[in-house]
């Protein structure tokens, strides 16, 4: 299996209620992080890992997502006539990234159900799942490492990250054993959003997965879990418990830069951090922050 043959699935059917009223008419995945919508960062990450086929799972009122990855000939013509080639390149870039497809989730029955909707498109092949709330810094590649591990070990691979134990209840959590590689662990069990007292570790599942096609049959049999939804974590727990189904479940422990755009405060922090890292915005923004800081309470 070569990396380019892997397809990516991006679940994007959520209602984005934490960002209301901004998301009343705009998908949360289209909220700008600096000057690009969050979902473009995710597609660019998949492309950087060698993926050229992306399926986005959408819900109602998500047409803006499809429009973003389509051509806008009127705008392109206007920019071309003005000679504004820099903006023209930025406008055309999303439509040339990859083959981007869309399918409706229908009933909002959880992440596991959204992944299950990708079955016909993915077929009987290993595929990647990227959640749009987690942005991984392009300077700290994660997905390519996960694909390499999956190929080498014929394994399901989950991205993990150490978090403060007080925050583990916000995530799926992994019970693991070490391997000979410092960033690779074997997952023995998974727990969805445990309390700090019940958590087997402080290793949280972040929104990147490389899944084998056997996951679909497991998801078909998975009963609704927390929140009355079909949880992907529950299906992964079945795979971890029985390697005969699809081989081992491994975790790549990520130590790089991750930006959480699913929370309002973290979304603002992410935008500021990414802007600070840019040559065209960083110096002036940093100067303004330094000027502002002494006036803060």
TrEMBL record:
Residue intervals of the Nucleotidyl transferase domain: 7-268
- Extract one GO BP annotation from the record: UDP-alpha-D-glucose metabolic process
Its domain of life reads: Bacteria
What's its EC? 2.7.7.9
Q: Does the keyword Nucleotidyltransferase apply?
A: yes
Coiled-coil residue spans: none
Sequence intervals crossing the membrane: none
**InterPro entries, A to Z:** GalU_uridylyltTrfase_bac/arc, NTP_transferase_dom, Nucleotide-diphossugar_trans
| SUPFAM superfamilies membership | Nucleotide-diphospho-sugar transferases
Q: Which CDD domains match?
A: UGPase_prokaryotic
Q: One GO molecular function term?
A: UTP:glucose-1-phosphate uridylyltransferase activity
Reactions catalysed: alpha-D-glucose 1-phosphate + UTP + H(+) = UDP-alpha-D-glucose + diphosphate
Q: Which keywords does the record carry?
A: Nucleotidyltransferase, Transferase
Q: One Pfam family of this protein, by short name? A: NTP_transferase
- EC top class, in one word? transferase
The entry's family comment says: Belongs to the UDPGP type 2 family.
State what protein this is by name.
UTP--glucose-1-phosphate uridylyltransferase
Source species of the chain: Microbacterium trichothecenolyticum (Aureobacterium trichothecenolyticum)
């Amino acid at each position: 299996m070569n990396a380019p043959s892997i397809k990516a699935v991006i679940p994007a059917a959520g209602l984005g209620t934490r960002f209301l009223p901004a998301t009343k008419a705009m998908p949360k995945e289209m909220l700008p992080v600096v000057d690009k919508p969050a979902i473009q960062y995710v597609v660019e990450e998949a492309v950087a890992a060698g993926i050229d086929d992306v399926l986005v799972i959408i819900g109602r009122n998500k047409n803006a997502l499809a429009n973003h990855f389509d051509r806008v000939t009127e705008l392109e013509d206007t920019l071309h006539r003005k000679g504004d080639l820099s903006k023209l390149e930025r406008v055309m870039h999303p439509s040339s990234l990859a083959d981007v497809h869309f399918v409706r989730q229908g009933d909002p029955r959880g992440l596991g159900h959204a992944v299950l909707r990708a079955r016909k498109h993915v077929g009987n092949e290993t595929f990647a799942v990227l959640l749009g709330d987690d942005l991984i810094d392009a300077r700290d590649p994660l997905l390519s490492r996960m694909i390499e591990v999956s190929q080498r070990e014929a394994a399901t691979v989950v991205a993990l990250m150490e978090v403060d134990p007080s925050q583990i209840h916000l995530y799926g959590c992994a019970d693991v054993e070490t391997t000979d590689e410092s960033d690779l662990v074997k997952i023995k069990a998974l727990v969805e959003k445990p309390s700090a007292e019940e958590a087997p570790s402080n290793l949280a599942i972040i929104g990147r997965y490389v899944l084998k096609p056997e996951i679909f049959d497991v998801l078909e049999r998975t009963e609704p879990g927390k929140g009355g939804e079909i949880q992907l974590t529950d299906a992964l727990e079945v795979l971890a418990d029985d390697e005969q189904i699809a081989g081992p479940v491994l975790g790549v422990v990520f130590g790089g830069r991750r930006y959480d755009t699913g929370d309002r405060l973290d979304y603002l922090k992410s935008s500021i951090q990414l802007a600070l890292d840019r040559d065209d915005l960083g110096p002036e923004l940093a100067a303004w922050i330094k000027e502002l800081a002494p006036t803060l309470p």
